[in-house]
Amino acid sequence: MAAPSNLLLKLSRRLFKAPEDQTAFVDALIKPACPASALVWMVPRPEQFPFSREPPLPWQPAWVDRLSPGQRPGQHPLHGSGAYYCLDLASVFTASVLTAIQSPLQAILDLCAAPGGKSLLARQMLQPDYLWCNETVGKRVKSLIANLKRCGVTEARVFNLDPQVWAAQAAQALPLVIVDAPCSGQSLLTKGRRVEGCFHPVTIGKNAQRQRRILAQAAQLIAPGGYLAYMTCTFSPEENEAIASWLLKTFPQFEAVEVTDLQAHTSHLAEFPCYRLWPQSGWGAGGFTALLRNRSPGQRALVTDFIDRQGMKIYGPS
């Protein structure tokens, strides 16, 4: 077990006033436990459930299962057949802001989509007519396509475009854009992974700058009445509450949306509705999420010609 760094201790004191909360947060990061994993079912569950599972949480969709520790769902034949997708329970939490959106939805753009978990969660929650999955980093596109294809989501279109291209081609045209933003990845420590420099101010500052750039483009895509879902897997306020606050000030047509299912997890670090899952909860690695709505009047049509030109089709098994 590694000793906590001074930067981690400073972060804990900024996040929590009570010493016991500070200690619990630090321990969750330096004493990695078996993370809570979840299954997103893409087909109806089998009658004989193949794993041990825990009782559902209030924000857990009916088609998601929380597994007991020690399960290995990635090695089961049902995984290979695409019956379900495995992911950390914290991803289910952050995607749960989408429960505040009425379904079905005409279209969803997942702007930072690889490896595909948020796209699959959004598809199951909102049943869109169109699912568009964008990944800026070219080497990650292959895994995104592979996961969508394995899970039978062959109606999706995959893109490898900078958010600036989207903003230029589809301004104010989309009802929902998801930004699961690149971040310092501090929650990965709860899984026993090394994340060098994740608490350093320079690392956090660079990520915050990149997040603002992505969100500035994403905000331009949202149609009047549409939504922008912002989420990360890190804990520093500069990458979470401060980023959402910046967007609300920079784009005053947006407002933060209250999400009933997540009210018990409202962040105490902001004056507007946004939500945190802390790693010491035992319900996953932790994360931040917020749902923002464009309250401007009016309507815009989808830009399907651009989609048809740029999107890669996913083909099913040959």
Q: Can you tell me the CATH class of the largest domain?
A: Alpha Beta
- Tally the helices: 10
In which range does the helix fraction lie?
Answer: 25-40%
The percent range for strand residues is: 15-25%
Largest sheet: 9 strands, mixed
What would you call the shape?
globular
* Distance separating the two termini: 48 Å
H/E element string? HHEEHEHEHEHEHEHEHEEEHE
Q: Unreliable runs, pLDDT <50, ≥5 residues?
A: none
CATH H-level name of the largest domain... which superfamily?
Vaccinia Virus protein VP39
Keywords:
single chain, about 30% helix, nine-stranded mixed beta sheet, alpha/beta, globular, about 325 residues
Chain-wise SSE layout:
Elements: H1 6-15, H2 19-30, E1 37-41, E2 64-66, H3 77-80, E3 84-88, H4 89-95, E4 107-110, H5 117-126, E5 130-134, H6 138-150, E6 157-159, H7 163-169, E7 174-180, H8 201-221, E8 222-232, H9 241-250, E9 254-256, E10 275-277, E11 287-294, H10 304-310, E12 312-313
Parallel strand pairs: 4-5, 4-7, 5-6, 7-8
Antiparallel strand pairs: 1-2, 1-3, 6-12, 8-11, 9-11, 10-11
Description:
By secondary structure, the protein is of the alpha/beta class. It has 2 domains: 1-31, no CATH class; 89-302, Vaccinia Virus protein VP39 (Rossmann fold). Helices cover 32% and strands 19% of the residues. It has 10 helices and 12 strands. The protein has helices spanning 6-15, 19-30, 77-80, 89-95, 117-126, 138-150, 163-169, 201-221, 241-250, 304-310, and strands at 37-41, 64-66, 84-88, 107-110, 130-134, 157-159, 174-180, 222-232, 254-256, 275-277, 287-294, 312-313. The strands form 2 sheets. Strands 4, 5, 6, 7, 8, 9, 10, 11 and 12 form a 9-stranded mixed beta sheet that branches. A 3-stranded antiparallel beta sheet has the order 2-1-3. Helix 8 (201-221) links the parallel strand 7 and strand 8 (222-232).
